[in-house]
Design a protein that fits this description.
With 471 residues, the chain is of the alpha/beta class. It is built from 17 helices and 14 strands. The strands form 4 sheets. The chain has a 7-stranded parallel β-sheet. Helix 9 links the parallel strand 7 and strand 8. Helix 5 packs across helix 6. It is globular, with a radius of gyration of 21 Å. The relative contact order is 0.14.
């Protein structure tokens, strides 16, 4: 769905329906900072921060970011430190607390299950993110966009209050050279670290080959798999084999990209199917194939409780109802190098001309690449940053062509667009699965919106009451 779309309200609503509600864990630090600068409507952020168990952290965050009544519409958001391998205490405070806040609010008022979803490609904030979510009692951690071999063992250690470390992928690293990011729960809390419940870990994979690697080489227990096909929103796994593009310029997926479900059944651990499975028939089919259920994103992304700005949400639903909603799987838009699904929509940076006219800037940095400098130290560059900066940092110019600023675009989707010094405002970049073309089917006659509860009831409508059908 993109950062902040599966927010705490949506996960809370889904969990209340007896399903696993999952919050998006990407960029929660900047999302919390900007919610506070918008005045924290409803007081939800402050209510959750008041429950944060480490003294002093919440007040430091409020002192820095909270603005009573919210910032002026034409005023820029205050910046926060960029993600890096050796974060300051202020950045750790914000990262841990923001993940705690999102999970705590998603869990508030019910006894249902709440999970969190992270991207393996975004490595440097992972350790404090996990600790913050576990402090709030998250029940499940999901991770894809890479092969997260280290995460199960990290969850084991964090649950025991032990220090953890994560090896970083660094371009240009020499043989035998490693770069690590570290986090010590005891140091963060200023005393003995709490013993926490170890959440279940679900690896998001596209093939049984990757799943097999996880089972053989992961540092701890893998509790299940989410098998995500190329029709799912956000980042997709690239096609296997020699890269090929369609006439429209989208990656071409073939038979090798279709997972063999028998392999997954043979693993004898739960799996869920994802990618245009958001209808009752697909749920029934998934259960018949031995799946524990389905993972649904797009249908919930356009529900009342999602984080998308209501005005844009209504526009996309209208396009869907008119049969005009389209998604382009862009092979080069994302700085990660993964194909990225982008809703084609006027007034957004899905339009290449609009994107090219944007003044390139990288001031959020979640999708930056780590590289080894000539002096052996760690450096950072982003294919979406100003081209001269990228080349100066050792990047190839051709790698910048067609890249878009996913970070700023996804925040603009949430009504948190940055205002630049010249008065320009960052434009949105909506991601969605292919199912956006049909999502209007969830609208009742004459209605222009629907609730998360409506989605759950719709999905379960083809399953008998006695069947077990987790979504």
């Amino acid at each position: 769905m993109g950062a902040g779309v599966s927010e705490w309200r949506l996960a809370n609503a889904v969990a209340r329906c007896g399903q696993l509600g999952v919050v998006a864990g990407t960029a929660l630090d900047i999302i919390l900072a900007r919610r506070l600068q918008l005045g924290d409507p409803g007081g939800h952020m402050r209510r959750a921060l008041a429950a944060f168990p480490v003294p002093g952290v919440a007040q430091r965050i409020l002192d820095r970011y909270f603005l009573e009544g919210g910032k002026a519409a034409d005023a820029p958001f205050r910046s926060k430190p960029m993600p890096n391998a050796a974060p300051s205490r202020a950045l750790d405070d914000l990262t841990v607390a923001s993940n705690f806040v999102e999970v705590w609010l998603a869990k508030e008022g019910h006894s249902g299950m709440v999970g969190v979803n992270y991207l393996e490609k975004i490595q440097v904030p992972t350790l404090p993110c996990l600790f913050g979510a576990m402090l709030a009692g998250v029940s499940t951690v999901c991770m894809g966009a890479g092969i997260p071999l280290a995460i199960p063992g990290i969850l084991d250690r964090l649950a025991k209050g032990l220090p953890v470390e994560l090896r970083l992928d660094v371009k240009g690293a020499q043989e035998g050279e490693t770069f690590m990011t570290r986090f010590d729960p005891s140091e963060f809390v200023g005393g003995p670290a709490p013993t926490l419940e170890r959440p279940k870990f679900l690896a998001i994979v596209s093939t049984a080959i990757v799943a097999n690697v996880m089972l053989r080489k992961a540092t701890g227990k893998v509790d299940g798999f989410v098998i995500e096909g190329p029709k799912a929103g956000g980042h997709n796994a690239p096609p296997r084999g020699r890269p090929a593009l369609s006439e429209e310029g989208e990656p071409v997926y073939g038979k090798r990209d279709v997972p063999n479900l028998q392999d997954f059944r043979d693993y004898e651990i739960p799996f869920w199917l994802a990618g245009s499975n958001g209808n009752p028939e697909k749920l029934v089919e998934a259960l018949a194939e031995g799946a524990a259920g389905i993972q649904v994103g797009t249908a919930f992304a356009f529900s009342n409780e999602s984080g998308f700005e209501p005005e844009w949400k209504a526009k996309i639903l209208k396009l869907s109802s008119e049969g005009k909603a389209e998604v382009f799987t862009d092979p080069i838009a994302s700085p990660t190098g993964f194909p990225f699904k982008v809703v084609q929509l006027d007034g957004t940076i899905s339009d290449n001309a609009v994107s090219k006219a944007r003044n390139r800037v990288c001031d959020l940095g979640y999708l930056r690449h780590a590289y080894r400098r000539d002096n052996g130290k760690l450096g950072w560059r982003c294919p979406s940053e100003p081209q001269e900066n990228y080349v100066k940092r050792g990047g190839d110019l051709e790698n910048t062509v067609g890249r878009k600023c996913v970070c700023n675009g996804l925040l603009a989707n949430l009504g948190m667009a940055q205002v630049r010094k010249d008065g320009t405002i960052e434009l949105p970049m909506f991601t969605s699965g292919d199912d956006v073309a049909n999502v209007a089917r969830l609208l009742a006659p004459g209605a222009t919106s629907y609730a998360a509860k409506d989605v759950v009831e719709y999905l379960l409508s083809g399953v008998s009451e006695t069947a077990s059908a987790p979504v």
